[in-house]
Design a protein that fits this description.
The chain has 271 residues and is α/β, with parallel strands linked by helices. Helices cover 30% and strands 19% of the residues. It has 7 helices and 10 strands. The strands form 2 sheets. The chain has a 6-stranded mixed beta sheet with strand order 5-4-6-7-10-9, sandwiched between helices. Strands 1-2-3-8 form a 4-stranded antiparallel beta sheet, with no helix packed on it. A hairpin with a 5-residue loop joins β2 and β3. α2 packs across α3. The longest helix has 19 residues. The protein is globular, with a radius of gyration of 20 Å. It starts with 9 loop residues before the first strand and ends with a helix.
Length: 271
């Protein structure tokens, strides 16, 4: 198996069961540490639904990213420009960013645009160039990352994206829930070295927040634009007071992680 990043050699890592029915080999790029599955012949079945049953974190993730990306765009980019959310799912992120005043548009060839209808790529003139493209939870789905990422960069010189970076140690599929074997859609797994290798191949600078959000850009920034400044004292104090008041009221803990585990167990029980 050749690396999808470098074209060089890989090392067999482990075998795991995908969709509770296919035993699939995983390989690690010897040069960059990038992890990939064997050629993913099961994707048509995995994408019988574009949004999987296990992605209960979709609304929370979009709300979190709306806040974070707004704070990245304002000081570092032309926030009055036009933006594109690539593979944007139901269009929720586009809608939330438009609600905040950013002129975002949506595109996704596999999923219906429910929340940003009339603000889609097809509603813009051909060859519209965007101030930045966002692509959240897309890279781990790519069967052939380098040319597919290059295609995204045809829309803009700035690509802001999310994908969870590998943990320090991976010996089995159980070491990282992000493998998401139950749904079969995650087939490419990155670390900082592999993302930088892609940026270098394509002629872009690479920045990362060190965990989840990353940037390919033609601009060389003096400081990392993804490392947000610490919030002011008054704002942090206000947040603590709100949290304290909520605890006093008996506000229950969120059920997101519990629900995710419950659904995961349900999916695994079908095997």
């Amino acid at each position: 198996m050749q690396s999808k990043i470098t074209g060089g050699d890989t090392t067999y890592l482990f075998t795991a069961r995908i969709l509770n029915k296919y035993d699939i080999k995983y390989y690690r790029c010897n040069q960059t540490g990038f992890i990939q599955t064997e050629e993913p012949y099961w994707l048509e079945e995995a994408y019988s639904s574009a949004i999987t049953k296990l992605d209960v974190g979709l609304p929370y993730r979009n709300i979190y990213l709306t806040d974070k990306i707004s704070r990245i765009l304002l000081p570092n980019f032309n926030y009055k420009g036009i933006f594109l959310d690539y593979a944007g799912g139901y269009g929720l992120f586009t809608r939330l960013m438009r609600d905040k005043g950013f002129n975002f548009y949506h595109t996704d060839q596999y999923c219906q645009n429910l929340f940003a209808e009339y603000f889609d790529l097809k509603d813009l003139p051909a060859n519209t160039h965007f101030e930045a493209v966002t692509a959240f939870e897309v890279f781990e789905h790519l069967p052939d990352p380098v040319p597919q990422i290059k295609q995204m960069l045809e829309f803009s010189d700035n690509l802001i994206f999310s994908t969870e970076l590998q943990p320090a140690t991976i010996n089995s599929v159980d070491d990282w829930p992000y493998f998401a074997t139950e749904t079969g859609q995650h087939i490419a797994f990155y670390n900082e070295a592999s993302l930088k290798a892609i940026a270098d191949q394509l002629g872009y600078h690479f920045y990362t927040d060190g965990s989840f959000v990353h940037l390919f850009t033609k601009t060389k920034f003096n400081i990392n634009p993804l490392v947000l400044p610490k919030e002011g004292y008054l704002l942090r104090k206000a947040r603590r007071l709100i949290q304290k008041a909520e605890r006093k009221m008996g506000m229950p803990d969120g059920l997101l992680l519990r629900d995710w585990q419950y659904i995961r167990d349900k999916l695994n029980a079908k095997s």
